[in-house]
Specification:
single chain; about 260 residues; mainly alpha; about 0% strand
Length: about 260
């Protein structure tokens, strides 16, 4: 089964970054005195931003490196396991690209506004409501993805060197990997709430714990299920991380409400 690189994805990210930089630059003053003043004087609020952003970024790098660990451990299995895992991840990535990112981007301003207003009761209620909507909307989509996994894989990938046997292997792994979708979306939204609460240091601990747990579960499950065990491990880790992130947000909200 052939591997497949993603130059189009990298090109799209570069193009998006270029458009954002151009849009921001056009809104900034063009006078040299403004730039000189901005670079010379330190904004006190930046210290707070950096203190909350750096742990979140480091945690994101640690959490993202789980993909490298999954592929490395998949290489210990039978031939083609890395490619099988990669193809199933591509399908999940397509779904998450149109669900997790937009959902977190839409909800984040509402959470940030409630934090700025110190309306902790409304924030807690909004978090519970958002979690319920996410699970209710994503779970049926996940079940449909599991049911139609062979047809989806056949439609997307079965051509050339990718044959029916490859479709069957990828569909089997996809059925396990698809259940990460509701938990991934919920965890992404809850992580934005944690950032708005300035509790990103807790996200760092969760990310490194998830990294260790992911490697441990990979080692246990792949011995019995192969590449599907690695996909199941990813689903379990996303589930635990989503619950841990939501619980962290609720604890922080309750502390602030009590104070």
């Amino acid at each position: 089964m052939p591997g497949r690189s993603s130059p189009a994805r990298s090109g799209g990210a570069v193009a998006q970054l270029t458009v954002l930089l151009v849009a921001v630059t056009r809104r900034l003053p063009r006078t040299w005195s403004w730039w000189r003043c901005s670079l010379r004087h330190w904004e006190p609020g930046l210290r707070v931003v950096l203190r909350n952003a750096v742990p979140f970024l480091i945690g994101g790098v640690a959490f993202g490196s789980a993909v490298v660990i999954d592929q490395t451990m998949a290489a210990w299995l039978t031939a083609g396991s890395v490619a099988v895992l990669g193809y199933s991840d591509k399908v999940c990535t397509i779904v998450l690209a149109v669900t997790a990112g937009p959902a977190s981007d839409v909800l984040f301003p509402h959470f940030a506004e409630l934090v700025a207003q110190r309306n902790w009761r409304a924030l807690r209620k909004r978090l519970f409501t958002s979690a319920g909507i996410i699970v209710s909307a994503a779970l049926p989509m996940t079940l449909v993805l599991c049911l139609l996994a062979p047809w989806i894989v056949r439609t997307l990938f079965e051509r050339g060197a990718f044959g029916p046997q490859d479709t069957q292997r990828v569909a089997e792994v996809l059925r396990y990997a698809a259940f990460q979708i509701p938990f991934y979306i919920l965890g992404t939204v809850a992580a934005r709430v944690a950032v708005s609460l300035q509790a990103s240091r807790y996200m760092l601990s969760i990310a490194f714990s998830a990294l260790v747990l992911n490697a441990s579960l990979n080692w246990i499950l792949m011995r019995h299920l192969g590449a599907a065990g690695i996909a199941l491990s990813t689903t379990i880790v996303h589930c635990i991380c989503a619950i841990a992130t939501c619980a962290t947000c609720l604890i922080v909200i309750l502390r602030k409400e009590a104070a």
